[in-house]
Specification:
CATH superfamily of the largest domain: Elongation factor Ts, dimerisation domain
Largest sheet: 3 strands, antiparallel
CATH class of the largest domain: Alpha Beta
Number of domains: 3
Strand order of the largest sheet: 1-2-3
Distance between the termini: 62 Å
Number of helices: 8
Strand content: 5-15%
CATH architecture of the largest domain: 2-Layer Sandwich
CATH topology of the largest domain: Tetrahydropterin Synthase, Chain A
Number of strands: 3
Radius of gyration: 20 Å
Length: 199
């Protein structure tokens, strides 16, 4: 059996923000493998986040970001208590989301916000691009292209611009904060303005 040292627990806690006992358990479950322990904590964080998803989030912050006086963003991010809204972690999340919106220019908040007529129009365009293939193959290609459309245009599906590995989606970023802060967190709405752009 692998010995879990206090330094290992401390390192994992600093990297993930999870509780000491959670870090110790994750290291024990993964036989001291640091990366597996992180994966274990992330999976548990997701489970925790799902449990908290039904709770009312009516506190929070309106964040803003202005880039070179040309692009401006307002975003409302909600949590459950004023106490969490005032933490550096929560404020940092709101700031990161504002910056991401300025850089990535999402058109919608989530998949559910994309109007059905937009989805149908995209499907028609994709079907027209694929010729000479069996219908079931065409539909698979269309679904794949539609997934890519959602990843490019829906804020929660976009890859976080500050993630060096380009894997962490905005929804995963929120889930990690839910697990760390212990409250439900929702991105309620956002607006992005680009100087001279017509609405």
């Amino acid at each position: 059996m692998t010995t879990i040292s206090a330094d290992m627990v401390k390192d994992l806690r600093e990297k993930t923000g999870a509780g000491m006992m959670d870090c110790k358990r994750a290291l024990a479950e993964s036989s001291g493998d640091f990366e597996k322990a992180i994966d274990c904590l992330r999976q548990k964080g997701l489970a925790t986040a799902l449990k908290k998803a039904g709770r009312t989030a009516s506190e929070g912050l309106i964040g803003s970001y202005v880039h070179m006086d040309k692009i401006g963003v307002l975003v409302e991010v909600n949590c459950e208590t004023d106490f969490v809204a005032k933490t550096d972690d929560f404020r940092g999340l709101v700031k990161d989301i504002s910056l991401h919106i300025a850089a990535a220019n999402p058109a919608y908040l989530s998949l559910e916000d994309v109007p059905q007529d937009v989805i149908e129009r995209e499907k028609e365009i994709y079907r027209a691009q694929v010729t000479g293939k069996p219908p079931q193959v065409v539909e698979k290609i269309v679904e794949g292209k539609l997934d890519k459309f959602f990843c490019e245009n829906c804020l929660l599906e976009q890859v976080f611009v500050k993630d060096p590995e380009q894997k962490l989606k905005i929804k995963d970023l929120v889930t990690e904060k839910i697990a760390k802060l212990g409250e439900n967190i929702l991105i309620r709405r956002f607006a992005r303005f680009h100087l001279g752009e017509k609405q």
